[in-house]
Amino acid sequence: MPLSDSRKQSERAKPVEKFNIFNDERVRSVFYQLLTVAVVGWVGWYLFTTTAHNLEVRGMGSGFDFMGIEAGFDPDFKLIAYEPGVGKYRDIFFIGVLNTLYISFLAIIASTLLGFTIGVLRLSKNWVISRVALAFVEIFRNTPLLVQIIFWYTGIFSLLPKVRDSIDLSAGSEVLLLNNRGLYAAWPMPGDLFWMTIAALIIAIIASLVYKHWAKKHREATGKISPVFRVSAALIIFLPGMVYLATGTPLGWDIPILEGFNFVGGATLSPAFLALFVALTIYHAAHLAESVRAGILSVSRGQHDAAMAIGLSRKRVMSLVIIPQAMPAIVPPMISLWMNVVKNSSLAIAIGYPDLVSVFMGTSLNQVGHAIEIVGMTMAFYMFVSLSISALLNIYNKRVQLIER
Q1: What's the topology of domain 89-186+255-400?
Q2: Spatial CB neighbours of 98, under 8 Å, sequence gap ≥ 6
């Protein structure tokens, strides 16, 4: 059969596609999307109109005008200037936001450092160290966080010595004191030329980062390892130190002094803050430690043996070979852990730390009402922080992902 005849026969045998609006997959996809949008929109409209009607029937106000009303209470811990009866409820909102971010940021840093340390120690060949790390993980990971917060507050920090019998954590210099009213520390008071020391510190940090980048390129090109840590430490310590001395040491200290029944001056951290910080740090560090251990174990044993064979020390094998390859497995659970630190800080209401839930969704809500607005603002804050953490760590996660060849 000629080639042209067979081609014509195959074209005649090809079935003709007919468009059927009821069976077409694309039509069904668009239809279900429109149906979903319509249902969600109707539910939102129904909830909004019903809530507005119920508020009108009960004579309850709505809107955000209450944010400009003077607040008559004073949170016992705040990072901005505020005066009861003068400050507004919007100031209370910002106080709660800053207090939440403050404790969350410190707890995230501390729990990450402690979690990585415990995770590495879990794999130690020293039996005692590995078992102590295992006990730490099993005890604090399997105990409710709220119980731990209450334990540290009522069982530890509330039972510390009284003010006159404070524990001096500064080896006799009395600049860091701990008692049942909190932690009292000397607070820096910078002078006019102290900005030059800060500028020198920033320059030193930038220079150390540039040197680290050069050392990495140099190692990849020649195989020689440069002393990055020692050079960076020298830059960061000596350059700002020389500028600080040359400008006449423009930094004073406000030292806490015992007057009457309490200390005056310096900075103070309440027992509620300390208990919340310790509980958040230990609880989440125990969870992160297992993620770190699993990430390290996911790296092939051959990578360790190969690094040891070329003469690297165990410390450099862990920092240069194992940990970088383990990070793609560690970062995803760490994203959830950091978000949980922020959300779990809301448990501070149990011990009276003035976070956003305590001062805004608690005290402010009881005084001015507007439950929908206050609860909505609180939820929006936690959602915004969680999404921001997720976005930033996802960017980092993409950078540390291994590229397959």
Answers
A1: MetI-like fold (1.10.3720)
A2: 78, 79, 80
